[in-house]
Design brief:
Shape: elongated
Radius of gyration: 22 Å
Largest sheet: 8 strands, mixed
Structural class: alpha/beta
Number of strands: 15
Number of helices: 8
Strand content: 25-35%
Helix content: 10-25%
């Protein structure tokens, strides 16, 4: 099936109102994207900020009446003429596989590979996690995920337990199990992440060794290894509760932290954690950090 996209810069228009009109005019999906270069990295609690220059994209069937859509927008919006906009025709393709053009097997550390469906890894000692991008973030392409995967590859996980706090796609917990962990728990408050993690665990044949939770207060017991790849704000806010999931001398990795936030995050964990030197990785003009350490006994 072919599709067309209606693409418009929002300017000062209300995003929710425009989105409603697009859906009522037959849009199959509506997406908001950054039309400039103004990333929103860490909004405050309860905030849903947009970019200073926001683009809204409505996806329509090829035979949709987009002139009627324009008329609807002009009638219901407080404007004399629509902001800058255009229509794109999308050629038919298998969209759920389209990402494979830019996503092949990726190596993290010495032997840990993330491999898309249909990909192959020939190395004899390869540890392979089969993972397609799905409902939730986390395929290894972001520096924070990559650094956590590299760290896990360097650990001796045989027989250990692992907690993936804010699991997203479940890639870190699944990787730990593939690397020899005896059991893993993935926790995420996003229901879509829980669904994606469960599907990915089943696809990698590790579901029987993995517990998947939808809230932090469901976590019980203590773990040998805890990874929290979320954001600096929640890492600081929940420092004590995250630390309490670690057994004595358990190993902790914190990520999702920009380099300028690293000291603040480490200070929040200083009462319990002896940190190693931070690791840093740069991408797209931003430098991200991974903070690792061990819980002191007692």
């Amino acid at each position: 099936m072919a599709w067309r996209q209606f693409v418009m810069h929002l300017g000062n228009l209300d995003a929710e109102q425009v989105e409603t009109i697009l859906f009522e005019s037959g849009a199959s999906s509506v997406t908001l994207t950054d039309a400039g270069d103004d990333p929103v990295l860490e909004p405050g609690v309860g905030e849903t900020p947009l970019w200073t220059d926001t683009r809204i994209i409505g996806l329509f069937a090829a035979d949709a009446d987009l002139q009627q859509l324009r008329d609807n927008l002009l009638t219901r919006l407080p404007v004399q003429q629509l902001p800058r906009h255009h229509i794109e025709t999308l050629r038919d393709r298998v969209w759920e596989r389209e990402w494979l053009k830019d996503f092949g097997p990726m190596l993290f550390g010495r032997r840990l590979w993330i491999c898309p469906t249909g990909g192959r890894v020939s190395e004899d000692d390869a540890v392979v996690v089969d993972l397609d991008p799905g409902l939730a973030f986390g395929t290894g392409t972001h520096p924070t995920t990559a650094m956590c995967l590299e760290w896990l590859d360097g650990l001796s996980l045989r027989g250990k337990t692992m907690l993936d706090y804010g699991c997203g796609s479940g890639v870190l917990a699944i990787a730990a199990l593939k690397l020899g962990a005896a059991a893993a728990t993935g926790m995420d408050i996003d229901p879509q992440a829980v669904i994606a993690t469960r599907q990915n665990a089943e696809f990698n044949d590790v579901a029987s060794k993995m517990e998947i939770l939808g809230a932090a207060d469901e976590i019980s017991g203590k773990y040998d290894v805890v990874v929290a790849n979320i954001l600096a704000g929640p890492l600081v806010q929940f420092a004590e509760s995250i630390t309490l999931t670690l057994c004595d001398e358990g190993m902790l990795a914190l990520s999702g932290v920009l380099c300028e936030q690293a000291d603040t995050v480490m200070r929040a964990y200083e009462p319990w954690i002896d940190f190693d030197d931070p690791a840093f990785k740069e991408q797209d003009g931003q430098t991200w950090s991974r903070l690792t350490g061990k819980r002191r006994p007692g």
